[in-house]
Amino acid sequence: SMQIRSGSRSSAPCPRAFVRFIKVIAGHGTGLLHFWMILASAIRQVRGLGDNKFEVVTSLRTFIFRAEREGERQEWMETLQTATRPPACGSQKRSGTLPHASSTNKRGLLELRGYKGRVLVSLAGSKVRLLELTAANIRDLDRRGFEINTPFKNFCFTAESEREKQEWIEAVKESIAETLYDYEVAEKIWFKEANRSCADCRAPQPEWASVNLGVVICKKCAGQHRSLGPSISKVRSLKLDSSVWSNELVELFLEVGNKNANSFWAANLPLEEDLYREASAEQRATFIRRKYRERKYTTHHGPLYLLLCVKALCAAVVSSDVLQTMALVFSGADVMCATGDPTYSTPYLLAQRAGQKLQMEFLHQNKLCAFPRLDQWSENACLPEASIFMDGFLYISSSSTKATLDRRGRDDMARRWCTLEGGFLSYYESERSPSAIGRVDATEVISLAVNHTETMTGAGAVFTVELYLQTERLLIFGAETQETQHDWIQALTKCFIPPKVEGLVRKESELIGRLHYKEGHDLYYWRMGWFMLEGSSLHFSSGEEEGEEEVLQLKQLQELSKHFSPPIQVLLMVACGRTVYIHGFNKMDFTVWHSAIKLAAGTDGNALGDQQLTKNGVPIIVDSCIAFVTQYGLCQEGVYQRPGNPGRVSHLLEEFTHDARNVKLREKEHQLQDVTDTLKSFLSQAEDALLTKELYPYWVSALDEKSERQRVKKYSAFIESLPKINRSTLEALLQHLYRIQQCSHLNRMPSEKLASVFSSCLFQTRGQTTQEISVVHDLISNYITLFSVSLKCSCGVFFSFLMCCLSFVPGSRDYNLDFCLLNNIKKCRCLHTILLYLK
User: Fold this and answer.
1) Which GO terms describe its cellular component (predicted)?
2) What rounded mean pLDDT belongs to the chain?
3) Same domain, 552 and 415
4) Which domain holds residue 593?
5) Are both 636 and 764 inside the same structural domain?
6) What pTM did the predictor assign?
């Protein structure tokens, strides 16, 4: 039988607002598993029956109840009849002990699975039909359905339309979140009148805040603030993130307030561009981007003010004027700048010394934020071209964390209809879907990675593109052809790359984006620049002048290292006497650039061009081996003829292949024979012969010339036709062998023997032929002529020879010459002087 277990009843007349429903529980001990709710306004009639029963008649059905006693039945009937009458008195004020009024209220008719017809569902705060949403979650189902999962039971609902379903889902999600709300922080922040409305659209009772910008914002604006990225706006909830809200942070918001903050951010806001509460998501996004990222509505100061920003910041942080500090930081003053004081080296330490807790809190919240100087800002840098439009099918990854720089396959990509319009990349379930299932603001893209090879997915082979956003999100899409991929890249890059650096976007670009950097002449200030990785070349530009572009050859880096410089990670690159530091906008962004640069700067094949190189374009393995032999083996008898240990040679080759830049050859750790065999093995195993297999018949045919002068002339022409890296490597090797044969009276290695050793390496032939040996002999003997070595360079060669003679001539006098004398001999660069000295 049905029995009334709970409800609202009172002998005194009561306002209707307090008698909203009757809760009916069927069965015994079933808790929330079986219950019904009858809205008081839906009751048409309440009448008594026999046997202590009474019935409640509604438009959908009639409920029959039975009480324990006749008196109890009468009491219930009177209470229900009172509840259905219009209220006899005005609304009473809510008691202070009642919970806060909820901003999430929704009522409507829904179909409830397991019940016939539709049921009226009322959502008030954290309860649906008295269903507690604590520890509950909601799941979107197919078509118009959704499911609420509670610890007791799952409830499946179907709405009348897709739009109504989404409204219900959002409302229930908010209600679930409300079960975790803590109003203490919100009430403190709202104590200041300016904080009771949104700083952007003036919506009442804003429940979110940007803790570094110092503004209190509503839920809708908070979503757009998140898209700015944590480097510009760090969004936190007043009700959920209670652990974030220290006493100092609350005091900071009471000190600043939305009114004072807007005196900076909206100082020059035109009335026609102001944001209103009913604005669309696109209008809201545009306004917030212009207000905070572009700082369009702030007061722009002259260049002198900007130059004095750092000095002014150091003076401001020791005072109580937080607003002045805020204006300086948001105008581009670096919160981590050097103060010039070795003990209190940052503005934060200055504020700490002065006991300015609010200044310390503000600087702490902005230590990772990036506000470029207003004089460096280019409005065109982030404004998309309104005319750009593209649409078509792409494959979109459902994962937002797994990058594909490792080029492995993916099985989480689905075919979606995509559009690029107004600077937004939107993707839909199909081309007929009315609403997008995802959207990316192209101006939020900080890096774009391109995979020029096919990536295998569950949908087949596609050419993928990765979009890294300021919010540390990753969107991966793929195209069926490289042409389609290139078209989308061209359109997307026009939306976030300034026109002045559009030249960086090329068909073979692998990674494009913006980074913070500093270099050579100015290592004190970070600047924003645009970077593009193409093969092993890193192109970059500050974007200040059109066509300005600089290039780092990553294979020729002398140093590549990662450093942690709190609070950021920094990548150091040194090449040809030039030093460049870079860091990203977030951890994910930095990681992808670091991985790509490290990969491009490393050894990635057996070809000469795939090796790590010196500043002269010679593989480091060749240069290191030559330097070691020159230092320790120039006058060793039988150098290059004595075999090394195969195991040690193989290990040394592996070390050079892994990271040649960090291999250091030392006399006590490495044997001369192992190093010489390593050099010969490398040349033999390279992808192509140093003299190239293609030119083999030409080299050999040159021997038909009886005149050495004519042969040398042909050799010179062949050398000029070699690839640049082959030419520079051959020059370095022949110079080395020329020095060896110059000391042949000591090392017993004349050019004939050297030619016999190296001919099979340079031509990559299995055996040695007389013709190959003759060609290599000619090359060694005529090194000076073939490479047009100047007298200055010749003196350097003979100086090495001189050192060898001075050190190893048996029975000679003591040649520990004064350093200055040797230095003067070298400086004179005069062959005649050296020959006279030898004589």
Assistant:
1) cytoplasm
2) 80
3) no
4) 511-601
5) yes
6) 0.52
